[in-house]
Amino acid sequence: WRWNALANYNLAGLGSDRHWLNNTSIGGALRWEDRAAIGFLGAAPDADGVIRTLDKNKPAYDQARTYVDLNASYRFKLFSDRISGRLQLNVRNAFEGGRLQTVSVNPDGSPANFRIIDPRQFILTASFDL
Questions:
Q1: In the chain, at which end, N or C, are there fewer CB atoms within 10 A of the end residue's CB?
Q2: pLDDT at position 101
Q3: Residue 16: its pLDDT value, please?
Q4: How far apart are alpha carbons 107 and 101 in whole angstroms?
Q5: How far apart (Å, rounded) are the C-alpha atoms in residues 50 and 98?
Q6: Longest CA pairwise span in the chain (Å)
Q7: Alpha-carbon distance 6 to 30, whole Å?
């Protein structure tokens, strides 16, 4: 299971007389993923001590994960209001420091394969309407 929630708020709604607040918006997203199956533990070893089959009743799971994204944007005008522009800063995975995440396990439960989880990313974009 997984779900996503997204919110954005235009600060002009604050009723402020500060002009720059009227052109500013902030927002964020919350993403949640339920625990994921990453394999099965081994069945009882054979007589020679080697595990040759997996036990379908002993799944191995990774933990549930929650991710947070943040954003802020500012609208502006240039050249006597002939060109509209917007600057936006996005912070993806705001509380993630980067790590290796186990994606599969060996029959004994030890990690077998990993994927790289990127640390938080800062993305600045500028757009213009002529």
A1: C
A2: 96
A3: 65
A4: 18
A5: 36
A6: 85
A7: 7
| Tokens matching residue 118 | 């990127």
pTM: 0.81
Question: Residue 22 has what DSSP assignment?
Answer: H
Q: What pLDDT, on the 0 to 100 scale, is given for residue 51?
A: 86
Q: How many CA atoms lie within 13 A of 6 on its CB side?
A: 3
Q: What distance in Å separates the CA atoms of residue 121 and residue 25, rounded to the nearest whole number? A: 20
One-letter amino acid identity for 29?
A: A
Planar angle of CA 50, 106, 53, nearest 5 degrees: 45
Determine the 3-state secondary structure of 20 from DSSP.
helix
Write b or e for each residue in 62-82: b if 16 or more Cβ atoms lie within 10 A of its Cβ, otherwise e. beeeebebbbebebeeeeeee
Mean pLDDT by runs of 10 across the 130 residues of the chain is 96 75 94 96 90 92 96 94 95 96 94 96 95
pLDDT of residue 22: 86
| Sequence-distant contacts of 3-11: CB under 8 A, at least 24 apart | 3/31, 3/32, 4/29, 4/30, 4/31, 4/32, 5/29, 5/30, 5/31, 8/71
